[in-house]
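pasting for ref
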Amino acid sequence: MRAPVYIEPGSPWENPYVESFNGRIRDELLNEEFGSLTEAQVLVEAWRIECNSYRPHSALAGRTPDEYTGSGTPSASQHSHDSWNTKRGPVSPGGR
């Protein structure tokens, strides 16, 4: 395991993976207006389940995080983005 490396504030190019994730979660989830704390909690949990159970990740060779860790049911073949679109999870397009 590598030791943590200090990243200067205002230097997103030094940590592109986290910056990519932050941008994606903001675009897909956090730019929404929530009516209540309960609504926000429900939508964030649905997004988390979708991301971990239904959405393949290129860094995991087209598998979902659940498939990669063995906590989900792996498919017979690797997912593609097209199969993900037809096998959507609990969050509808546009976050609602």
